[in-house]
């Protein structure tokens, strides 16, 4: 199935490069809008704005069949909207995000520097476990290790591994990965996201160092 999906995607891109370019534009638009909402929009407005962006992301996915990148960003937006919403509604959105990421993994698991693995690892870390949700510590570690294998110096992969280890009370391990996240190379065109993630990593690192004493 994975080979068939990849073949279909490659045939589609080769046959319609202009359409592929429009899909890349959609991905960049989702990325920029998510960063703006996450790091610049007031908290009181984030939930409604993220839900609007989630609907827009769904439409982009429909216009870009066979592409992993729009699916990944749709999942990120949907999971973020679910986290802001909370409750059973938020859990339902987290499940939808997981399904999107699993579909993207079947198409191209290495898309966007392994963001499929980073996002799945984050979901399995943060969502409550059974019987309420699908959170799973063992699966979270596996996916985050895959994310680090795909992008060992990436700020997100290291940040989310640090967050995972904090939740497992491995504070020394968390310090190591969060420090690496802070030293990650800047991502071109991602200045806002890098600043926001570094601020989160710095705050978590301070807590990890305190607890590691």
Briefly summarize what is shown.
With 213 residues, the chain is mostly helical. Helix content is 82%, strand content 0%.
Which secondary structure elements does this structure contain, and how are they paired or packed?
Blueprint: H1 2-15, H2 17-39, H3 43-63, H4 68-85, H5 87-107, H6 111-126, H7 137-150, H8 155-167, H9 171-182, H10 191-212
Structural descriptors:
2 domains; mainly alpha; 0% strand; Serine Threonine Protein Phosphatase 5, Tetratricopeptide repeat; 213 residues
Helix-strand makeup class = mainly alpha
What's the β-strand tally? 0
**What is the CATH T-level topology of the largest domain?**
Serine Threonine Protein Phosphatase 5, Tetratricopeptide repeat
Determine the strand fraction and express it as a percent band: under 5%
Q: What is the CATH architecture descriptor of the largest domain?
A: Alpha Horseshoe
Radius of gyration: 17 Å
Number of domains: 2
Q: What is the ordering of alpha helices and beta strands?
A: HHHHHHHHHH
Largest sheet at a glance?
A: none
Count up the helices: 10
Helix content range of the residues, please? Answer: over 70%
Mean pLDDT: 90
**Shape descriptor:** globular
How far apart are the first and last residues' alpha carbons, in Å?
Answer: 50 Å
The stretches of 5 or more residues where confidence is low (pLDDT under 50) are 1-20
Q: Oligomeric status of the shown chains?
A: single chain
């Amino acid at each position: 199935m994975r080979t068939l999906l990849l073949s279909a995607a490659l045939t589609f891109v080769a046959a319609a490069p202009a359409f592929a370019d429009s899909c890349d534009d959609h991905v960049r638009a989702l990325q920029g809008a998510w960063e703006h909402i996450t790091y610049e929009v007031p908290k009181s407005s984030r939930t409604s704005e993220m839900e609007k962006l989630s609907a827009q992301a769904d439409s982009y996915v429909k216009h870009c069949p066979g592409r992993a990148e729009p699916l990944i960003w749709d999942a990120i937006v949907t999971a973020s909207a679910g986290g802001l919403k909370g409750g059973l509604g938020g859990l339902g959105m987290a499940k939808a995000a997981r399904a999107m990421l699993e579909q993207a993994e079947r198409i191209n698991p290495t898309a966007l520097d392994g963001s499929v693995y980073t996002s799945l690892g984050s979901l399995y870390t943060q969502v409550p476990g059974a019987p309420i949700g699908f959170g799973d510590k063992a699966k979270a570690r596996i996916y985050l290790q895959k994310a680090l294998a795909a992008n060992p110096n990436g700020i997100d992969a290291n940040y989310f591994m640090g967050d995972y280890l904090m939740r497992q009370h491995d504070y020394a391990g968390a310090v190591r990965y969060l420090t690496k996240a802070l030293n990650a190379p800047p991502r071109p065109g991602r200045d806002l996201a890098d600043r926001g993630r570094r601020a989160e990593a710095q705050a978590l690192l301070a807590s990890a160092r305190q607890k590691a004493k």
